[in-house]
Structures are given as C-alpha cells and as structure tokens.
Amino acid sequence: MSGRTSFAGKLRWWRAHRGVSQLALAGRAAISQRHLSFLELGRAAPSRDMVLRLAEALDVPLRQYNALLLAAGFAPAWRETELGAPELKQIASAVDYILGKQEPFPAVAVDRRWNLLKANAAAVRLVEFLVGPLPPGAPVNLADALVAPGVLRPFLTNWAEVVRYFVRSVEADAAADGSDETDALLARLLAYEGVRAAMREPLPEAASAPVLPMHFCKSDTALALFTTIATLGTPQDITAQELRVESFFPMDEATAKIFRGWAAKARGTRA
C-alpha cells in the first residue's frame, strides 16, 4: 500500500479495492454518506471505534486493521504472535495434532505468503525424495519451491496446470488482503520463466477428476496427490488469521502404498 499513508487515503483505497460505493459503505457502517465523504477527504478525523467499524464493514484483514488504526493515530488492536510463543500454545498444539494425524501422508503449516512454519515427517520424506535434504533451519517458501524452475518443477509433470491454479489463488489473496507483501509474492511468481505462458494456456473443456491432482515423477516412482487447506475459524491474532495447514492425500492406492512404505522404512531405521 505504498503511497497510501494517510487514513483518508487508505480508506479511499480499500473502498475502491472492494468495489463498494460510498452509499453502500456508509450503510454498512451505520454512518451518513456525508460523514464518510468527509473522512475520505481528510476533512474529519475518525474515532478509534469508527476506524474499527469501517475496517469491519470493508472486511479488512487484521494486519490491515492495524495499518488503518496507526494511520489514524491509534494503537494497533491486534497482536502478531510467533507461532511458538506461549500465547499460541493451544494453536500450535492443534497444528501439531493435524500434522501428526495426517501421517503417513504429507502436511505442512504455512503463513499467508507460503513461508513454511511446520511440516510433518511425511512432508520431509517427500521433499528429501524429490530434491534431497534441505539445510537445517533454512527458510523455505513453498510458493517459490513450486513455481521456480529448479526445485519441484522438474518432477511435477503437470506443472503448467498446477501453477495456473496456484497463481490464481495468490492473485485472490492479493485482492483480499491488499498488502505489499502479497503483491510482491505475486509479482515474483509471475516473473519466473514460463509462468505467464502457463497462465495463458486454455482451460480443459471438461475436467477428468473432481480435483486437480499434482503428478510427481522421479525415476520409476510416480505420485499422484491432491490437497486440502484448513484455516482457523475465529482468529483474533494476525499469525492465527494468516495460518494455513495444507494436507496432501493420495489420488490412488499406488501412491498411498509408497507413502506407507516410506513411513515403515523410517520406523525401521529409528528402531
């Protein structure tokens, strides 16, 4: 949101971004259109309650709630807590529970920009099979890993189809949260070789499956997976709102058998 530093400017931008008229927004926030006009022109200063009402009416994410409050001269309303902090202990435990229950199939926890926060053992085994062990503690961005030329792309046989859907989802995120960070992620993904060409490819006339699978192939091993994404239903922390858990499921019994075999081998190695 570079260049939109004043509250009035941010309010105008969000209303235009959401495609809402002054009259409609005034009705949602239970204020007069004249008052809203004065706020957008900077001729009236909002109260803290007014900022919160307008942010709610515009369905602004918690991170941008804080940005609106700061622009209006108020303290932020929402915290951004590290997932490992004591305050999010129950959330982290719930994530660990989901990741553990997904075994022997992969699952990961990521933030809004697809930075990896947690992964179960099956996800680690999948990555190590495809690309080898990652450096301990190295930051991983799953969007870059999927879209960039040299990581997962060589092993994803339907890369163009998957990337088209994935980049569209990032576009939707950018439209929803209006943040510079998501815009930067989208621009970075679109800049990778072959992405814009993939986006221009025609959609299939009829889908052959209820979901688009990811087809990985390395040597003689073929894997077919689909994914689900879970979010928290009633977040009151920025980290909690931006948290996503993506779980991978086999599309066929052959894929399931491979993952079960990897898990059994890992248990035997530990023993």
Task: Describe it.
A hairpin with a 2-residue loop joins strand 3 (214-218) and strand 4. Helix 2 (22-29) crosses helix 3. This protein is elongated. The mean pLDDT is 93. The chain has helices spanning 7-18, 22-29, 33-41, 48-57, 62-71, 89-102, 121-131, 142-147, 159-177, 180-191, 195-200, 238-242, 253-270, and strands spanning 107-110, 116-119, 214-218, 221-230, 244-250. The chain has 2 domains: 7-71, lambda repressor-like DNA-binding domains (434 Repressor (Amino-terminal Domain), Orthogonal Bundle); 86-270, Beta-Lactamase. The chain contains 13 helices and 5 strands. It is 52% helix and 11% strand. A 5-stranded antiparallel β-sheet has the order 2-1-5-4-3, with helices on both faces. With 271 residues, it is of the alpha+beta class.
